[in-house]
Write a structure and sequence with these properties.
The chain has 8 helices and 7 strands; from the N terminus they run βββββαααααββααα. By secondary structure, the chain is an alpha+beta fold. A 5-stranded mixed β-barrel has the order 1-2-3-5-4. A two-stranded antiparallel sheet has the order 6-7. Helix 5 runs parallel beside helix 7 and helix 6 crosses helix 7. The protein is elongated, with a radius of gyration of 21 Å. The protein starts with a strand and ends with a helix. The mean pLDDT is 91.
């Protein structure tokens, strides 16, 4: 069933793949319809006009037919641009691909459109493209996406007594922070340092549109990564294939630092 013919929407090209001999299937994150897959005919024909518009990490205004099931179609584009850094830097590209893959797992079309997530993801891509620390932008999205997976870590205050001043530690058994007075309730808490706890709390509420700069120590970034991996593995239960490449890149970085 056709949702809308002659639809106009803002989109970000996520990926594309060959389909038959001359055609392609192009996945686009749209501002009005969520993630949609578009059938694009004749990509390899001489004089094909939409070539630049269907490159990964291209964004702009698209016109076409949107179907609620099956494939949709693109007829024209305008004001097309590309996130150049995302296409040229393998590390930035990997972070962006992971964020979009994770969001697709977490969000329905309605959540993307009416929950403000399209704008949030667009802001994340813009920040990474502008060379904000991609690991930190990724952490922010990961923490804020947990709610959409049905997991909401209690990071405002102590789960037990609502004390709002630390020191704190994170307890998976209690689903949030414990203050020092209640550490004994969970001997298997994550034993986090207070700087890591601080950033977990900050990232859960930070507004990407107001983020002007952020610098986090390397050792804290490592702890944030380990902490979020633990929570995603044990509580969220989601692992997207794009994460594997990020994990491999981390080992490359370790190799660079060896004497």
């Amino acid at each position: 069933m056709v949702v809308k013919q002659g639809a106009e929407f803002y989109g970000i090209v996520v990926s594309r793949r060959d389909y038959r001999e001359r055609d392609m299937l192009v996945q686009i994150l749209t501002d009005k319809y969520g993630f949609k897959t578009f059938f694009v005919r004749g990509v390899r024909k001489r004089g094909f006009k939409l070539g630049a518009a269907i490159l990964p990490f291209t964004h702009g205004t698209y016109l076409g037919t949107i179907n609620d099931t099956g494939l949709s179609f693109i007829t024209a584009t305008r004001e097309i641009q590309q996130y150049l850094a995302l296409t040229q830097d393998i590390e930035l590209n990997a972070y962006a691909a992971y964020l979009l893959s994770l969001a697709q797992k977490a969000l329905s079309e309605r959540q993307l459109v009416f929950g403000g997530w399209f704008l949030k993801l667009r802001q994340a891509l813009e920040l990474i493209d502008a060379h904000f620390d991609p690991a930190i932008i990724t952490n922010i999205i990961e923490i804020q996406l947990m709610t959409e997976f049905g997991v909401r870590p209690h990071l405002e205050d102590c789960v037990v007594c609502q004390r709002s001043d630390g020191p704190f530690d994170y307890s998976e058994n209690y689903g949030g922070l414990l203050c020092q007075k209640h550490f004994h309730l969970d001997p298997h808490r994550l034993h986090l340092d207070q700087r890591t706890v601080y950033y977990l709390r900050l990232f859960s509420v930070v507004d990407l549109s107001r983020l002007s700069s952020i610098k986090v120590r390397p050792e804290t970034k490592t702890m944030l990564r380990k902490t979020l991996d633990e929570i995603y593995q044990s509580q969220v239960g989601i692992y997207v294939p794009a994460k594997k490449f990020l994990d491999q890149m981390a080992t490359w970085d370790l190799g660079k630092n060896k004497p």
